[in-house]
Write a structure and sequence with these properties.
The structure is a single chain. The chain has nine helices and six strands; from the N terminus they run E-H-H-H-H-H-E-H-E-H-E-H-E-E-H. It is α/β, with parallel strands linked by helices and 217 residues long. Strands 3-2-1-4-5-6 form a six-stranded parallel β-sheet, with helices on both faces. Strand 2, helix 6 and strand 3 form a beta-alpha-beta unit. The radius of gyration is 17 Å and the shape is globular. Bound molecules: 1,6-di-O-phosphono-beta-D-glucopyranose and magnesium ion. Magnesium ion (MG) binds next to loops.
Length: 217
């Protein structure tokens, strides 16, 4: 049976993906090039340092480790400026309702985010006491598409991967869930999230019963 739901943060619970994009775009612009929204799909769910490497390769730049650290820090400062203005109004539509269904169904929950800023964001939106386990960028050594962030969540909840459903908006995150041996619900477009077991536009259009019926027959 399904015992736990594991949630990504950015793009599933809150739309911080847009703030990451704005901050990375500002950085790329200062370095003399631009990044498109389509290109940004490659950065979703990918760690800060890996994202920077992908952006620099896109701009044809090779920089020292020291300079890269500076740039990553600068991006994070811009990102934190945007995040500091967040409130519970930034929780994505359908999330509160979905979580009350999750609780009624008696399922456990974990957060699986590679963001080092996840605890701060949860606090800003008033969701720091909602999850049974929180795995974030400070607790893992490998970002998505490595499954570590989700396998650690399952381990902390003491459930097996086959008893978990992952909710993800990113290509790298869907891959992480699948590599971890879990069921994956992709939130977004089926043309982009091709590896997901089920795709819906957002949590607003899904019910817990529908998800359970799909994966436990
Ligand atoms: P930070 P998720 C990921 O969060 C974001 O999708 C990704 O764009 C970001 O680079 C990464 O967190 C690291 O975030 O710079 O705050 O540590 O989707 O796994 O919740
Ligand atoms: Mg995400």
């Amino acid at each position: 049976p399904i015992k736990a739901f594991l949630f990504d943060l950015d793009g599933v619970i809150v739309d911080t993906a847009i703030y990451h994009y704005q901050a990375w775009r500002r950085l790329a612009n200062e370095l003399g090039f631009d990044i498109s929204e389509e290109f940004n799909e490659r950065l979703k769910g990918v760690s800060r340092t890996d994202s920077l490497d992908i952006i620099l390769a896109h701009g044809g730049l090779t920089l020292s480790e020291a300079r890269k650290t500076e740039l990553a820090t600068q991006k994070n400062e811009w990102y934190l400026e945007l995040v500091s203005r967040m409130t519970s109004d930034d929780i994505l539509p359908g999330v509160p309702n979905f979580f009350s269904q999750v609780r009624k169904a008696g399922l456990q929950t974990a957060l699986g985010s590679v963001s080092k800023n996840a605890p701060l964001i949860l606090e800003r939106i008033g969701m720091n006491n909602v999850f049974d386990a929180i795995i974030d960028g400070n607790k893992i050594s490998k970002g998505k598409p490595d499954p570590e962030v989700f396998t650690k969540g399952a381990a902390e909840l003491e459930v097996s991967p086959a008893e978990c459903v992952v909710f993800e908006d990113a290509v790298a995150g869907v891959e992480a869930g699948k590599r971890g041996g879990m069921y994956v619900v992709g939130l977004g477009s089926p043309d982009v999230l091709t590896q997901a077991d089920l795709v819906a536009p957002s949590l607003e259009t899904l019910t817990v019963d529908e998800v359970l019926a799909r994966f436990q027959g």
